Fold this sequence. Notes:
Strand content: under 5%
Shape: globular
Structural class: mainly alpha
Low-confidence stretches: 121-125
Distance between the termini: 44 Å
Order of helices and strands: HHHH
Helix content: 40-55%
Radius of gyration: 16 Å
Largest sheet: none
Number of helices: 4
Amino acid sequence: MTGxxxxxxWNKLQEIYKKTxxxxxxxxxxxxxxxxxxxxLSLGMSRDDVEVLxxxxxxxxxxxxxxxxxxxxxxxxKLTEITEKxxxxxxxxxxxxxxxxxxxKTWQKTVELTKKWQSKVNRNMSLT
Length: 128
């Protein structure tokens, strides 16, 4: 046993994680998008979870001038890097390292801010 995770082990972990999410009780299904997707999100990536992230960022930027407005593309855009720039602005407020990569902590904070600000009206709010 080395403690290293090879591709086969990683794929098995991902499979089990997805099965667990699929077995959520019905009353928790409405929170499914809030659950960390189980992989780091960074430049060049695409899938539904990137679009969910962009949707959260869009809701946050509607309440704050601090972050750039993202487009719902489902692509962690290399061309304009708007998604990455938005994440970096958010990270400045709550993590030690600002890298533009969305891991569990950044995902959780993004969801928290979205929920917190959904009921707020003031668009000129600060992230800090």
